[in-house]
């Protein structure tokens, strides 16, 4: 028998030495396909037979499309591990993978600090209303004419964190430094140690009491459009919304209407419902801070993510199991 194969979907940008070291354990292969149709054809033709694990990037969706039931069904029988280089893994149908006996991993903690940094940047920028004057300054109009409305200090404001995972907990520590009171809602109440002093509240209470609402939850069928018209109606008038999770956890049409109506005073977004397209109502609103999905856009974080993901490939080859699996498969 020859060596097993590892399929690379996407590119290794930084951890080249670690990736190349896997060649002592497996043959490293890549698709020729540059479209989903071609990739499915290669799968159907048996080109990837013998592949035990695949390393996939977020950007590889441009080649393969999402890892849905149709694609998973065509993956080689030999494939047992999908190593996804990202914290969010909504591009992968975990249920379909589980039915096929395929384990899925993600990169859950390497992204926490960098994403929470962007999260805090957006909270401060949106609260202070910086975006309007940043635009005016580039147009030679100083702060703007007329000047923008006064912004708000973070001190004493209630920050509601929806989704208190690694990024949410990291954000809580950063918000503490700015004197914010932190409440959170999660599927499950955290231990006192993990909560770090944040108060657990119901979803409705978080909506009603928060001055700033930060979305830090994964995208799945239960969280899609979790924030929409009826949720905006329950919020304080003048609330600030920040999203560094996935765009589709907010109904962007409803968000634009809430902004136009003054229910939402400002918002800061790093993610969008139909990336790379951005809702024109968001682009047109100067009170909206827009960042093009750069939560993990640092050299240190991207390197750490690649090393983590390569570590999962190595563990799969050497031990027959990855160092971590996604929560849906923790008990499978």
UniProtKB/TrEMBL annotation:
Recorded GO molecular functions are:
glyoxylate reductase (NADPH) activity; hydroxypyruvate reductase [NAD(P)H] activity; NAD binding
One Pfam family hit:
2-Hacid_dh_C
Q: What range(s) does the D-isomer specific 2-hydroxyacid dehydrogenase catalytic domain occupy?
A: 48-326
Q: What are the record's GO terms for cellular component?
A: cytosol
Residue limits of the D-isomer specific 2-hydroxyacid dehydrogenase NAD-binding domain?
A: 121-295
Instruction: Give the SUPFAM superfamilies listed for this entry.
Output: Formate/glycerate dehydrogenase catalytic domain-like, NAD(P)-binding Rossmann-fold domains
Tell me the InterPro entries matching this sequence: D-isomer_2-hydroxyacid_DH (IPR050223), D-isomer_2_OHA_DH_cat_dom (IPR006139), D-isomer_DH_CS (IPR029753), D-isomer_DH_CS1 (IPR029752), D-isomer_DH_NAD-bd (IPR006140), NAD(P)-bd_dom_sf (IPR036291)
Q: Which UniProt keywords apply?
A: NAD, Oxidoreductase
Q: Say which family it is in.
A: Belongs to the D-isomer specific 2-hydroxyacid dehydrogenase family.
Give the matching PANTHER family.
Answer: 2-HYDROXYACID DEHYDROGENASE-RELATED, HYPOTHETICAL D-ISOMER SPECIFIC 2-HYDROXYACID DEHYDROGENASE (EUROFUNG)
**Name of protein:** Glyoxylate reductase
The protein's organism comes out as Lophium mytilinum
């Amino acid at each position: 028998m020859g060596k097993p194969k590892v399929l690379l979907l996407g590119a290794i940008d930084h951890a080249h030495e670690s990736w190349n070291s896997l060649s002592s354990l497996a043959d490293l292969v890549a698709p020729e396909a540059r479209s989903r149709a071609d990739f499915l054809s290669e799968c159907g033709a048996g080109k990837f037979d013998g592949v035990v694990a695949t390393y996939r990037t977020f950007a590889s969706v441009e080649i393969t499309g999402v890892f849905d039931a149709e694609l998973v069904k065509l993956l080689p029988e030999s494939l047992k591990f999908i190593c996804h280089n990202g914290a969010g893994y909504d591009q992968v149908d975990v249920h379909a993978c589980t039915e096929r006996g395929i384990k899925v991993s993600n990169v859950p903690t390497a992204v926490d600090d960098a994403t929470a940094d962007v999260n805090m940047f957006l909270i401060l920028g949106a609260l202070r209303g910086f975006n309007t004057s940043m635009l005016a300054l580039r147009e030679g109009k100083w702060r703007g004419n007329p000047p923008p409305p006064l912004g708000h200090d973070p001190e004493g404001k209630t920050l509601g964190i929806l989704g208190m995972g690694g990024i949410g907990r990291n954000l809580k520590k950063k918000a503490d430094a700015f004197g914010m009171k932190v409440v959170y809602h999660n599927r499950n109440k955290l231990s006192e140690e993990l909560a770090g002093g944040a108060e657990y509240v119901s979803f409705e209470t978080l909506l009603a009491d928060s001055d700033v609402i930060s979305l830090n939850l994964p995208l799945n069928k239960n969280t899609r459009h979790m924030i929409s018209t009826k949720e905006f109606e329950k919020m304080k008038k003048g609330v600030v919304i920040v999203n560094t999770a996935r765009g589709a956890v907010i109904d962007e049409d409803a968000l634009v209407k809430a902004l136009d109506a003054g229910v939402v005073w400002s918002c800061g977004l790093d993610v969008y419902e139909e990336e790379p397209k951005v809702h024109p109502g968001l682009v047109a609103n100067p009170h909206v801070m827009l960042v093009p999905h750069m939560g993990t856009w640092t050299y240190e974080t991207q390197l750490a993510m690649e090393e983590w993901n390569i570590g999962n490939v190595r563990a799969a080859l050497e031990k027959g199991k990855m160092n971590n699996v996604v929560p849906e498969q923790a008990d499978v």
